[in-house]
Design brief:
By secondary structure, this protein is of the alpha+beta class. The protein contains 12 helices and 7 strands. The chain has a 7-stranded mixed sheet. The chain is globular and about 80 Å long.
């Protein structure tokens, strides 16, 4: 049943997220050890309205812009990078639901606080059958799959011309998929980014859309087509949805460093207090400036997505490529800040009960995500700046 709601202002949603930080930190070790989010965390995120931020108002959602989403994810990232990562990932396939026909949305949003996981990798195949397609395939790195109701999958299917094939996106209930518990990693362990498998799963036609249409924000929903939230291309939305987690991790590292600074000495030197050493002053200044630079790039990509959504103005190729570069810059600057602070944290920081060692591993994992690797994103942006065609359809 559709409904409407009044969205809380940005400040309220950010406040709610900030209030979750102690809880997330409390469960962080459990989350990493068990390679999944704690159930209390899921309940707290739901109570704070995090799962409603990228849902249409007519389904009880908030239709929050990406600036708000970023600010909320920064706070969650301060608490636990795995939690923020999963929440941000849920927001992207959750947005993709809005590209599907209204009757499909009715089905998906009938579940309160529905969570949709997904991927953009076409690692499955579909064959036509009356009324839809039969899908077989497997998809790795599916963050939040253990706590999701639906998965958005990408697979290769016959194109309308009957000759060629193209990638399509589909929505499949998690109950139709198998889980492979293979998430044994060095970083973002708590994200539970397992592999999912489809074996002869039937998907009706209405739950299948061509991926190129979603990439270009061509919604099959007449009710969503004019909403600001759905007027931007998929990769612009995905990029703007991914920055908050990274900055939150960097801010968490800075907070942890200063919490441990008072009274710490620099071993094998005459500095009885680390905070008196010039090297420490240089380190914290460098790290803080790197975080500030990351905040700038996040603000640029989110403001672009939000302003284009409001105006409905078309996107230039350079703007599309720049959103990828901005995410790369956020990752590069934030990782640099964390690395400086971690190196300055001393040998005692490698113990499991010191958060910064987990933050380092989570940050390195984020920087290795294929859509966030700084060098790959800079190359794509540079190609476009030099007048060449992009070497990726994910733009």
């Amino acid at each position: 049943m559709s409904s409407t709601t009044t969205a809380p202002p940005r400040e309220e949603l950010v406040r709610r997220a900030a209030e979750l930080v102690p809880l997330l930190r409390k469960h962080a070790a459990w989350t990493e050890e068990n390679r999944r989010l704690h159930e209390e965390t899921i309940e707290a995120l739901a109570d704070a309205g995090v799962f409603r931020m990228r849902t249409p108002v007519r389904y009880g959602g908030y239709e929050s812009d990406t600036t708000t989403l970023n600010d909320v994810m920064v706070e969650l990232g301060r608490g636990d990078g795995s939690v923020a990562w999963v929440a941000s990932v849920w927001s992207i396939p959750g947005w993709m639901v809005g590209m599907f026909p209204d009757q499909v949305q009715d089905e998906v949003y009938s579940t309160p606080n529905v969570r949709v996981c997904g991927t953009l990798s076409p690692s499955g195949m579909g064959r036509p059958r009356d009324g839809g397609m039969v899908v077989n395939g497997s998809w790795s790195f599916i963050s939040g799959a253990l706590h999701s109701h639906w998965q958005e999958v990408i697979f290769i299917a016959p194109a309308p011309d009957g000759v060629n094939h193209w990638p399509v996106a589909a929505l499949i209930p998690m109950s139709d998929l198998q889980i492979v518990d293979d998430w044994h990693t060095s970083g973002l362990r708590g994200s539970g980014s397992v592999t999912t498998v489809a074996k002869d799963v039937f998907v009706p036609h209405e739950r299948i859309l061509p991926l190129p249409a979603i990439l270009q924000a061509q919604s099959a929903s007449p009710l969503n087509a004019q909403l600001p939230m759905y007027r931007s291309p998929l990769l612009g939305v995905a990029n703007a949805s991914s920055t908050g987690t990274v900055i939150g991790l960097a801010k968490a590292a800075r907070e942890n460093f200063f919490e441990r600074l008072d009274g710490r000495k620099i071993t094998y030197t005459d500095y009885a207090n680390q905070n008196e050493a010039p090297i420490t002053h240089l380190q914290v200044a460098e790290a803080t400036m790197k975080i500030d630079e990351a905040v700038f790039h996040a603000a640029r990509v989110t403001s672009l997505v939000d302003s284009k959504g409001l105006s409905g103005d078309p996107w230039s190729l350079e703007e599309r490529a720049r959103t990828r570069a901005d995410v790369g810059a956020v990752c590069e600057r934030s990782k640099a800040a964390v690395d400086v602070l971690a190196l300055a944290s001393g040998g005692s920081s490698i113990y499991n009960d010191v958060p910064i060692q987990r933050i380092v591993r989570d940050m390195h994992a984020v920087n290795m995500h294929a859509l966030m690797v700084p060098a790959t994103n800079y190359e794509l942006y540079g190609r476009v700046l030099c007048g060449l065609e992009p070497n990726s359809q994910y733009i």
